[in-house]
Write a structure and sequence with these properties.
Blueprint (H helix, E strand, L loop, with lengths): L2 H10 L1 H13 L8 H13 L5 E3 L8 E5 L5 E7 L3 E2 L16 E2 L4 H17 L7 E7 L9 H7 L8 E9 L6 E3 L2 E2 L3 E10 L3 E2 L9 H12 L1 H6 L6 E10 L5 E2 L2 E10 L2 H21 L3 E10 L3 E2 L1 H15 L4 E3 L10 H4 L4 E9 L21 H19 L1
Parallel strand pairs: 3-6, 3-7, 7-18, 8-17
Antiparallel strand pairs: 1-2, 2-6, 4-5, 8-18, 9-16, 10-14, 10-15, 11-13, 12-14
Helix pairs in contact: 1-11, 2-4, 4-11, 6-8, 9-11
């Protein structure tokens, strides 16, 4: 692997990656509405002379795949491109979001821009590659019920692909540090909904009603015993309550109460068991309190599984590019990402690149109005992607 050439080519793209990243940041788009974003990506790829491009997924004009080379092995690299619904951007930046209520508050603009930088490196090294690459600019990572990864896979994005690389910028982590977790790397992330039906009545005469809100309170407390009393010690799970909707007036006992929540775990067996456990507790308490219950489980994201061999190739690439100590193994993340759908289909590696520790301008949490991207790490992202992809090609030859 020609590390000097990769680093030089990535550094040469730094200014342009920054300009593109800020252009995308200024004009964010939500999942399955990323037409302008896709326009910019296609513009940049065609300016590099790349033409093997497929655009438009899930019946939209959003998202794009670009192949560089035709030889096998072929390594796919995913960059998500969608923004978030955030009320306002709390940053004093000349390129802050111009779209009311929408912001790149997770760094997907950096992913798109850095993968474009990697594309330029791959294009310059096309004749030296021991294989080929497929660049996947994917919409709708944030839309849990319509994830872009599932649409990409269903429409053939992994056809002819031998392995997949995904990555994410990381606020609050040391600048330029490459972080990954062998094996399960993230929790699964699923949604549940519970309807509790009682009998409405006047607030002054509760004995003539059946109060679903009081029943809901008992259920919410009891659900926490699943983790503390039903799962073996050491088994990780989170059962969170997201919304509780009940009533419309202070002196009315409502007929119905609605609860929605989130489930996270790293164990597929635990994941499979949680819907039954929640249903059993909700039904039992509901019957005891004269209410009926209806539970719905909406599976969203399984865990990302990092292939151990791919992790070793990431470590090797990082050490050759940046020296020892730049790649670090870290504990499982409680977050979720639809990259997991790729990792269930092909050997995969998913890593983070640190932007800056707490106390720096780049320590604000993801999804917050104060989130900021450190453009200095774009070249690190691009070089790491290129180096890891080449290592994978060499290993699979």
């Amino acid at each position: 692997m020609n590390t000097e050439k990769i680093l030089a080519l990535a550094a040469a793209q730094e200014e342009h990656m920054t300009a593109v990243r800020r252009e995308l940041h200024k004009h964010p788009e939500m999942g399955w509405h990323e037409e302008r974003t896709t326009d910019v990506i296609e513009r940049e790829l065609r300016a590099m002379g790349l033409t093997n491009i497929r655009r438009g997924f899930r019946g939209t004009n959003c998202g794009l795949i670009c192949d560089i080379g035709e030889a096998r092995p072929r390594i796919a690299i995913r960059a998500d491109i969608d923004a978030l619904a955030v009320a306002f951007e709390d940053n004093d930046l000349e390129f802050k979001s111009e779209v009311p209520g929408v912001m790149h508050a997770c760094g997907h603009d950096a992913h798109a821009a850095s993968l474009l930088g990697a594309a330029a490196v791959f294009a310059a090294m096309k004749d030296e590659l021991p294989g080929s690459v497929r660049l996947m600019f994917q919409p709708s990572e944030e839309q849990a019920t319509t994830p872009g990864a599932k649409a990409f896979i269903a429409e053939g994005a992994l056809d002819g692909v031998d392995a997949v690389i995904g990555y994410h910028v990381r606020a609050g982590a040391p600048e330029g540090r490459i972080l990954y977790t062998p094996g399960p790397a993230t929790t699964s992330g699923d949604i549940w909904e519970l309807d509790i039906t009682g009998k409405g009545g006047h607030g002054s005469r509760p004995h003539e009603a059946v109060d679903p809100t009081v029943c809901a309170a008992q259920i919410i407390g009891a659900l926490q015993t699943i983790v503390s009393r039903e799962l073996p010690p050491g088994k990780f799970a989170v059962i969170s309550i997201g919304t509780l909707k009940s009533g419309s007036a202070v002196n009315v006992i409502p007929e119905k109460c609605e609860i929605t929540g989130n489930i996270r775990t790293t164990d597929p067996a635990v994941r499979d068991s949680l819907p039954e456990r929640i249903t059993r507790i909700a039904k039992g308490i509901g019957e005891a309190m004269r209410c009926t219950t209806e539970f719905r489980f909406i599976p969203v994201y399984p865990s990302i599984i990092n292939d151990p061999a791919m992790g070793k190739l990431l470590e090797a690439a990082g050490e050759e590019l940046f020296g020892t100590g730049r790649v670090e193994q870290v504990p499982i993340s409680n977050g979720s990402d639809d990259f997991n759908f790729y990792s269930t289909e092909r050997p995969s590696i998913y890593f983070n690149v640190g932007m800056g520790e707490p106390g720096t301008p780049y320590g604000a949490p993801h999804h917050s109005p104060q989130f900021r991207t450190n453009d200095a790490i774009l070249k690190t992202c691009a070089a790491t992607v290129v180096g890891t992809a080449i290592k994978m090609m060499e290993a699979k030859k």
